[in-house]
Amino acid sequence: MVKMKRFDLATVEPEVGEPAADRLISGTPRFRTWSVEEADGGLYSGVWESTPGKWRIVYDEWEYFHILSGYSVVTEDGGEAAHLRAGDSMILRPGFKGTWEVVETTRKDYVIRL
Predict the structure, then answer these.
(1) For the residues of 70-100, what is the DSSP string, one character each?
(2) Distance between CA atoms of 10 and 17, rounded to whole angstroms?
(3) Run of H or E including 60
(4) Which residues contact 41 (CB under 8 A, 6 or more apart)?
(5) Which of 10, 43, 84, 112 has the highest Cβ tally under 10 A?
(6) What is the DSSP string of 28-52?
(7) What does the alpha-carbon distance between residue 102 and residue 86 come to, in Å, rounded to a whole number?
(8) Which uninterrupted H or E stretch holds 23?
(9) 2, 95, 105 from 59: Cα distances, Å
(10) Cβ atoms of 102 and 54 closer than 8 Å
C-alpha cells in the first residue's frame, strides 16, 4: 500500500455548499470543498474555497488551515479580527465561536480532527 498521497484536485469532484441560512450574516457565499483524505479516527484533509460573504461559525472540531489565495477575516466572539491572506496559517480549536468573512474569494487547504 502506498503511504503518500498528493493533493491532486483534478482527481476529486468538489462538493458544493453554502452556510446554513440561520448562520448567514451577509452576502451569498458559495463553497466548494475537495475532500482529499478521510482517515480512520476522524481525520480529514482537503481544499476549501468560498466566494464573498459573512457567516457565523462554531467549531466542535480542531482545524489547521493555510490560506492559498484570497482575503478573509476570522473574528472570535469578543476577540480581535484576524486578517488572513495567502501564506497565512491558523488553528481553530474546539469551542471556537465567531464569524468568517470572505472579502475576496478565498481558498485554503485544511486538516480537521474530530
Answers:
(1) EEEEEEETTS-EEEEETT-EEEE-TT-EEEE
(2) 19
(3) none
(4) none
(5) 84
(6) ---EEEEEEEEETTTEEEEEEEE-S
(7) 13
(8) none
(9) 32, 5, 22
(10) yes
pTM equals: 0.95
**66-112 pLDDT, tens digit each:** 999 999 999 999 999 999 999 999 999 999 999 999 999 999 999 99
Residue at grid coordinates 451569498: 28
Cell numbers for 4, please give them: 503518500
Residues in the chain: 114
Domains along the chain with CATH numbers: 12-113 (2.60.120.10)
Let me know: does 101 contact 54? Beta carbons within 8 Å. Answer: yes
Convert the pLDDT of each residue in 30-66 to its tens digit.
Answer: 999 999 999 999 999 999 999 999 999 999 999 999 9
